[in-house]
Structures are given as C-alpha cells and as structure tokens.
Amino acid sequence: MEAKQQSDQVQAEFLDAIETALDLTALETLRVSVLGRKGRLSELMRGLGALEPDQRRAAGLVFNLLKTELAQAIETRRATLESEGLLAELSKQGIDVTAPVRPEQSGTIHPVNQVLDEVTEIFADMGFSVAEGPDIETEFNNFTALNIPPEHPARQMHDTFYFRERSDGDRLLLRTHTSPVQIRTMTAEPPPHRIVIPGRTYRHDYDITHTPMFHQLEGLVIDRDIHMGHLKGCLTDFVRSFFEVEDLPLRFRPSYFPFTEPSAEVDIGCSIKDGARLIGVGEEWMEILGCGMVNPRVLHNCGLDPSEWQGFAFGVGIDRIAMLKYGIRDLRGFFDCDLRWLKNYGFAALDLPTIGQGLSR
Ligand code: DAH
Q1: Is 70 exceeded by the pLDDT of residue 357?
Q2: C or N: which end of the chain has fewer Cβ atoms within 10 Å?
Q3: Exposure of 141 by Cβ count < 10 A (0-12 exposed, 13-18 middle, 19+ buried)?
C-alpha cells in the first residue's frame, strides 16, 4: 500500500477519535495505540527501513506530518479536557471555611510613623489637637514672620532649598522646620491655640544624623495667662512618657531661637555604655528639643496683641527621638526603603498577643 493511503487510513481511524475523546484516560489510550512505541504509526515508521531510499524519504515525510498532526490534536484535546475537568471539580466543591489561612506577608509600621503616632497620642491626652501645613512655604512664613529677617544668620544656618525666584521677587522654599505652621495657625484663627504640628521638613544636609528630608513635631500654646511653668510641666510630662522613664532627669538650658524669648533647649540624662546609649541613667546630657515663650514680635507679626496673648512653642526632631528610643544608629536607613531594615526596625500593625490576652480574659 502507498504511504499516503496508509497515512490517510491511520488519520481516519484516530484523528476524529482523539478530537472527541471523552476523558483523559480514553485520550491516553488513543495516544499509546497510535504514537506509543508499539502504536500504529510507529509500526509504519519501522517499516520504512525496507524501502528504497527515494521511497523511504517520501514516506518518512508523510508519516512525520501525520505524527505532528496527531500529537497536536492530542495536546489540544488534553488542554480542553483538563480545563473542563477543573471547572467541573470546582463547581462540585463548596468553600471550605475551615481550611487554614495561607500565611500572608504582613507589612510593618515605619518607625517614623510609629513615633509620630506615639507623640501625637501623648499630646492628644494633654488636650492638644493636630494641625498641618504644606511642605512648600513662603519666605515670610518660614522666616520673616518668625522674626528671622533676610539678613539674619539663622537663614544661612538652615541650608534652605529654594525654588526659582518669582517675577514679584518672592521665593518659595521647602520648609526648613514646622514652625511656619505656627504663623499659619495664628493668622487663620483667633486664639486660644493648643496644637501640635507633625510634618516633613527639608535641609541641604546629609550624614549619619542628617538627611535632606526629616521630620519634626512643632507645638504651640497661646492663651491669656500661659507662662514658663506651663512649658516646663508640659514638656517634662511629654519627654518622660515618651521615653517611658518616670523620673527621667531633664534640664532646661538657656538657648536662643529668634521666634522665642526666652528660649531653652531641653536635655535628658543619659550615659553611653559599650557604644549604646542608655536613657535616664548616668552623668551625660543630651539635647532633644528646642522651646521657649513665643516672642512678642511673632505674636505682633500675626496680628495678635502681645499684652493680651502669650504662650509657648517647641520643636522636636521626630527621627532623632525615634533613633534614641529604639536604638537606631544611622538616620539614613530610615529613608533607604530596604525591606530588611523595615522588617528589623518596623512595628507590627496589630499587637495580636495583646488582643488575644484581652479576649481570653
Ligand atoms: N524650629 C526650630 C528648629 O528647627 C525648633 C524649635 C525651637 C521650634 C524652639 C520651636 C521653638 O517652636 O520654640 O531648629
């Protein structure tokens, strides 16, 4: 018989059967009986050896074409049967609500956010509310109104990022501290004020304790009879509850800020042992925030009468106190977005063990 005839015969016998095979087992039986080692087509191919070279080549081509065609048909049918099988299987199954949950990767709270939450919570408990302002500020709010005129050396000290000068000669800038929100608050609404202002701040600086973007928390209290005793009491309570050391030694050291008069810096007692800083024990002092009584000039710049209104303000570096409380040595890690760092220093979103204890009690 001619090779073509033989091939047609095998094709007629198997192709249709393959395309309509009822299940994967039937399909496999068909595959073995046509393409398997002892299958029909393999048998025909074995017969090629007895032919003359010319005939052998021609017949080989015909059989190979059929082999490819049948193999493809088998794969197509297999894919169809498999997906039908999966659908049928799925439609038979209900949802097993008792199945164990797949372990999920859970994120962590960034130490800066954690500390911002901790700090605002402490002040919220003291009756403060939260205010915010934009990262892009005017020179007036960031400097001038805070009693830092253009020629004032503090303007240079802040290493400011400026935007291009506008046609009216004004320059916008990235705020160098959160203090401009004091101005925004006092010019927007009448006193009394009792606010904290968390936010991002920017300075042209980069080393182990400085990054061009960092975080501050500003505080402002304005009322009719606020005095330095309020400032001291409020900040002492804050620092002690933040560091969770009840008798943490604190000192208010005279200092200078253009926007406060008198001004002070707050130091906390600490010591350094084996390279690690211990808070609340030892002979050393470490500065952690700036504060003071709001300068009457600032009140005046905001349209308030200093003989009627007075108050205090303070500014804390959030990243800095986060480093101190949680023993983080290099500030730059805060903003490198390295997952290994975040896993190590991050905080669980939910303190599940506490909830567990709460429920079982
Ligand atoms: N703005 C100051 C800074 O960035 C911090 C500061 C000091 C803020 C004293 C205040 C303050 O409100 O009273 O260095």
Answers
A1: no
A2: C
A3: buried
User: Roughly how many angstroms between the first and final C-alpha of the chain, as a whole number?
Assistant: 89
In a domain, 40, yes or no: yes
Shared-domain flag, residues 21 and 139: no
Q: Which pLDDT belongs to residue 312?
A: 98
Task: Report the separation in Å between the CA atom of 215 and the middle of ligand 1, taken as the mean of its atom positions.
Answer: 12
The answer on 129 and 202 residing in a single domain is yes
Query: What pLDDT digit, counting tens, does each position of 141-200 carry?
Result: 999 999 998 888 777 766 899 999 888 878 899 999 999 999 999 999 999 999 999 999
**Atom of ligand 1 at shortest distance to CA of 294?**
13
Is 254 a domain residue? Answer: yes
Q: What is the pLDDT of residue 355?
A: 41
Residue pair 304/186 in contact by the 8 Å Cβ criterion: yes
Please say if the pLDDT value at position 53 is more than 60: yes
154 and 45 inside one domain: no
- Coil, helix or strand at residue 126: coil
Could you tell me the distance, in angstroms and rounded to a whole number, from the CA of residue 290 to the centre of ligand 1? 5
* pLDDT at res. 360: 35
Read off the pLDDT of residues 300-310 as tens digits, 9 standing for 90 and up. 999 999 999 99
314 lies in the same domain as 189? yes
Ligand 1 atom with least separation from CA of 220: 12
- Which residue among 177, 200, 298 has the greatest number of ligand 1 atoms within 8 angstroms of its CB, and so is best to mutate? 177
User: Number of folded domains in the chain?
Assistant: 2
**Domain with 255 in it:** 110-345
Q: Whose CA is nearest to atom 10 of ligand 1?
A: 314
CA of 176 to the centre of ligand 1 (A): 10
Residues 250, 200, single domain; the answer is: yes
The residues facing 68 across adjacent strands are none
